[in-house]
Amino acid sequence: MSQKFQELIESERPVLIDFFATWCQPCKVQSSVLTTVKEKVGEGARIVKIDVDQYPAIASQYGVRGVPTLAVFKKGELLYKESGVHDVNRLTQLLEQYI
Predict the structure, then answer these.
(1) Average pLDDT over every residue of 51-58
(2) Neighbouring C-beta atoms of residue 24, cutoff 10 Å
(3) Which of 15, 16, 27, 71 is catalytic?
(4) Is pLDDT at 1 greater than 80 in this prediction?
(5) SUPFAM superfamilies attached here (predicted)?
(6) Does residue 63 surpass a pLDDT of 90?
(7) pLDDT (mean) for 63-70
(8) What is the DSSP letter of 64?
């Protein structure tokens, strides 16, 4: 997964990574928000979910201490990272500035 993850974040288009856990209630809320964000940004950005329990090494590598944590990458560069639930408008604006 680590090699695949690296290829994913090297993308020319922005990639929003949702670090989540299946047992996390706020993560479920964030997931429904991300569905709406995807509809708004379309093909301009990718949204990928990473389960921190399945891929702890990736979460650790990027300093994920709590879930949900959202991170935006473009061309391998970490452009944004913050924990907590984000709303649709904030995430849409965030991604649009990198598209």
Answers:
(1) 97
(2) 17
(3) 27
(4) no
(5) Thioredoxin-like
(6) yes
(7) 97
(8) -
Q: Which of 24, 48, 79, 88 is catalytic?
A: 24
pTM of the complete model: 0.95
Q: Is 27 a catalytic residue?
A: yes
Distance separating alpha carbons of residues 2 and 42, to the nearest angstrom? 26
Cβ-count burial of 9 within 10 angstroms (0-12 exposed, 13-18 middle, 19+ buried)? buried
What is the Cα–Cα distance from 75 to 7, expressed in whole angstroms?
9
d(CA 86, CA 72): 13
**21 among known catalytic residues:** no
User: What's the N-to-C CA distance of the chain in angstroms?
Assistant: 25
Residue 19 has pLDDT above 80, yes or no: yes
Task: Copy the structure tokens of residue 13.
Answer: 């288009």
Q: What is the pLDDT of residue 13?
A: 96
